[in-house]
Design a protein that fits this description.
Elements (H helix, E strand, L loop, with lengths): L2 H11 L5 H14 L6 H59 L4 H28 L1
Helix pairs in contact: 1-3, 3-4
């Protein structure tokens, strides 16, 4: 590698460095007497860049986990709405087909109670998922 290509790589790698990273690079150069266009300097810059990426990793993982949890909760909400609508449709169909007698009224009441229990269970589940 020639010194121009090393200088270009160093410029590209240090573009988004923080001031303390540049201070650390200057300290390393001055302390060990390394030239700016040395391949050892390139390795040191790559090491600093990788260290910064590793330091940011827990924060990035937490952010991705948060996004994944929110997406999962929204999916569960959507599914609970669809299930509730389908259950209400089944109950309405049963009510229309069985429209007289005490047994029919008991069946309607039990279907409504079951729908309420299912709906409340889904709401509680979603509440505790937060």
């Amino acid at each position: 590698m020639n010194s121009n290509s090393i200088q270009e790589m160093l410029r590209d790698l240090t573009r988004d460095f923080l001031p303390q990273d540049h201070t650390q690079i200057n300290y390393f150069q001055n302390h060990f007497g390394i030239e700016k266009d040395s391949t050892l300097m390139l390795l040191f810059v790559i090491w600093i860049r990788d260290r910064r990426a590793i330091e940011k990793l827990p924060e990035m993982l937490e952010q991705k986990a948060r996004v994944t949890i929110e997406l999962h909760q929204q999916t569960l909400r959507d599914q609970s709405v669809l299930i509730s609508k389908e259950l209400i449709g089944v109950i309405a169909t049963q009510i229309k087909s069985n429209n007289n007698g005490t047994q029919d009224k008991l069946f309607v009441f039990s279907c409504g109670a079951a729908a309420g229990v299912i709906f409340c269970t889904i709401l509680l589940f979603l509440h505790f998922m937060k």
